[in-house]
Design a protein that fits this description.
single chain, Exonuc_VII_L, Exonuc_VII_lsu_C, 5-stranded mixed barrel, OB-fold_nuc-bd_dom, 13 helices, Rossmann fold, cytoplasm, Exodeoxyribonuclease 7 large subunit
């Protein structure tokens, strides 16, 4: 059967379906159907590809799944569709937040112009691959010193306000608050909610951490989440979150999962708690334990003081029991006679010393009197001095007419020399004997 094709009329535009998109122009546009067919033919030549990413949405409608997948390193996303026939062959535990690899083929709907990828196979990324990536990151952060104990900040003994980052209405929040309030009823919380899995986990947790770290009233920050499979805990091993925790000025406690869960956040945080309940116990002291401790300290202090006072009383009683302190006047009585004898002996010694000194003084006084010029004058002698004050010792030194000054025992006589005299003084033995004795 031959399809009738109308002949082109000169000066008229050809039908749109007959124009290829690459040959289209304003005078001869192509049709939407021809454009979609062309796009469909181009996309069909791509074939199937394997892609790795994180499932950000997983919606089941009519037995089919419609979802989106995000690149792990960037925010790039694609939509995908899983037909019910394919879904039966996939793992039954696939869900949003899973890290997967999928075999997809581009599919373009001509009628609606929608572009998506049809999934023919999908599975979780092997745990070995994840562990290898985490181990490489662990070695990198350890080499940078983010795990060093020296950089970890100590927890305050009794925080005024605890910052809590957790999922809204989560069991982890209830566990932390309940156990903290049981241990210390006056504890205060400042809670910042964040997604604890999926693509919003890391940015929301970082935002909450920065907000609480900037609050001067918050003394410690707890990042808490309940247990989960390793896939759902990957956000707490994200390098961006780990570096934000390392840069925080407020001490950070990691309380992710259960005892066996160990994301990298545990190594970077200042304190690792095995569970949210354990985090409350580590951050808040137990008021009952503190009261018991205070009671023990008071008891020990009372015992030590009682022991010290008893020891001092015993020493005082021992001192008081000594004879010298029991009857102190006895020591004075026994020493009184000795003190009297010593006093008498001292008085005698002083008296003898005074008598000896008086005699010596009298002798010295007599010697001084004997040698004194006044004593000599008192015996009748005189001192003759010339006008120049010189003592005349030779008669020839005072010729006639020389003015003399004669000093006797009582007064001074002005005289004039008559020259050398021939008169001799008669000797007087008694007088000379007295003078010699005085001179001696």
């Amino acid at each position: 059967m031959t399809t009738f094709q109308p002949a082109a009329v000169p000066g008229m535009a050809p039908p749109p379906d007959s124009v290829h998109p690459r040959d289209s122009k304003a005078e001869a546009p192509t049709s939407v159907s021809r454009l979609n067919d062309t796009i469909r033919g181009f996309i069909d030549r791509w074939g199937s590809v394997w892609v790795e990413g994180e499932v950000t949405s997983w919606n089941v409608r009519g037995g089919n799944v419609f979802g989106r997948m995000k690149d792990l390193a960037t925010d790039s996303t694609v939509s995908f569709r899983v037909w019910s026939s394919t879904l039966q062959r996939l793992p039954s535990d696939l869900k949003a937040g899973d890290h997967v690899i999928a075999c997809v083929k581009a599919d373009y709907f001509v009628r609606t112009g929608d572009f998506t990828f049809a999934v023919s196979a999908m599975r979780h990324v092997g745990l070995g691959d994840q562990l290898e990536k985490l181990e490489r990151l662990r070695q990198k952060l350890r080499a940078e010193g983010l795990f060093d104990p020296s950089r970890k900040k100590p927890l305050p003994f009794l925080p005024r306000t605890i910052g809590l980052i957790t999922g809204e209405r989560s069991d982890a929040e209830k566990d932390v608050r309940r156990n903290a309030e049981l241990r210390w009823p006056q504890v205060d919380f400042r809670t910042a909610y964040a997604a604890v899995q999926g693509d919003r986990c890391v940015p929301e947790t970082i935002g909450a951490l920065k907000a609480l770290d900037a609050d001067p009233g918050v003394d410690v920050i707890i990042i808490a989440r309940g247990g989960g499979d390793p896939q759902t805990l990957l956000g707490f091993s994200d390098e961006r979150l780990l570096r934000a925790v390392a840069e925080a000025n407020t001490p950070v406690v990691s309380a992710i999962g259960h005892e066996n869960d160990h994301p990298l956040l545990d190594d970077v945080a200042d304190v690792r708690a095995s569970t949210p309940t354990d985090a409350a116990k580590r951050v808040v002291p137990d008021v009952a334990e503190q009261r018991a401790l205070i009671g023990q300290l008071r008891s020990r202090m009372t015992s030590r003081l009682t022991q010290r006072v008893s020891h001092d009383i015993a020493q005082l009683e021992q001192l008081r029991s000594r004879p010298v302190l029991r009857a102190p006047e006895q020591m004075v009585d026994t020493r009184a006679q000795q003190i009297w004898l010593t006093t008498v002996r001292g008085r005698d010694v002083v008296d003898r010393a005074l008598h000896t000194a008086e005699r010596a003084t009298a002798e010295l006084r007599a010697s001084l009197r004997a040698l004194s010029p006044a004593s000599t004058l008192a015996r009748g002698y005189a001192i003759a001095q010339g006008e120049d004050g010189r003592v005349v010792r030779d008669a020839t030194a005072a010729p006639a007419g020389t003015k003399l000054v004669i000093t006797v025992e009582r007064g001074i006589i002005a005289a004039r020399s008559e020259g050398v005299s021939d008169v001799t003084v008669a000797p007087d033995p008694a007088r000379d004997e007295r003078a010699g004795a005085e001179l001696e």
